[in-house]
Amino acid sequence: MDLVSRKEWRAAAPTGSYTSVSSTRGVKVHYTGGPVPARIVDDHKLCVEHVRDVQRMHMSGGRETAYIDIGYSMVACPHRKVFMGRGPHRLPAANGAGFNAGHYAVLLLVGSSGFVEPNAGVLHAGRDAIEYLRKQGDAGPEIKGHRDGFATACPGGPLYAWVRAGAPRPGGAAADVDGGDLVAKLPLLKVGSEGWDVKTLRWLLGARGFPPVDLWSTEFDADLREVVVRFQREQHVDDDGLVGPDTWSRLMRV
Ligand SMILES: [Zn+2]
Ligand SMILES: [Zn+2]
């Protein structure tokens, strides 16, 4: 991960002590909710300025109360760099009152105008931040959008779709071999599903070292769901037992 330290972005020192958290259920993804100039993709200096602005705004009471520091745990920029915000094991202040203890807060520098379509760099950086918080901050497997459980447009349409897909890395191996289209055509499988796609699922799990009980069955039963959940946990995706685009693309990655 290409980390931008607080020293490197010339962060102001916090004005109080952080509340520590030993672990969280996962991570919530945010966008800026305001304009981000489209030319940010050509100039990393603008990212640094933007992060400094967010910190100033948060510490000066722009979000109702003055925060002791930038509210986010980490910030991902379009140049695949990750800015250290409050960091792991510290309570963020960006998810809304009462919602902070459950999830770390990761801001992706994507706006509601200007730079609105996330590029590969910012998605990779977002994923890097999530993986870092899992390793260093005991973040659990959940990946949610700010709007989950809270009345806000954040993180905007494109990022929310990415979150719903499990925050996958862009252009994974499956997409490289033109599997992107294929994955899009595969059905969502869950307990009760039936057909040849279920058998395909069983064989792919077997090929990945998760042999299900019956390789030939075309029924998605509770036993198969258990195997899917184990695979999803190993892959650090939402362990919901549903086989959608994110799980399919991981199964098909060579
Ligand atoms: Zn938000
Ligand atoms: Zn940048």
UniProtKB/TrEMBL annotation:
Annotated GO biological process: peptidoglycan catabolic process
Domain Peptidoglycan binding-like: 197-251
Pfam families documented for this protein: PG_binding_1
Domain of life: Bacteria
GO molecular function, one term: N-acetylmuramoyl-L-alanine amidase activity
Name of the protein this chain belongs to: N-acetylmuramoyl-L-alanine amidase
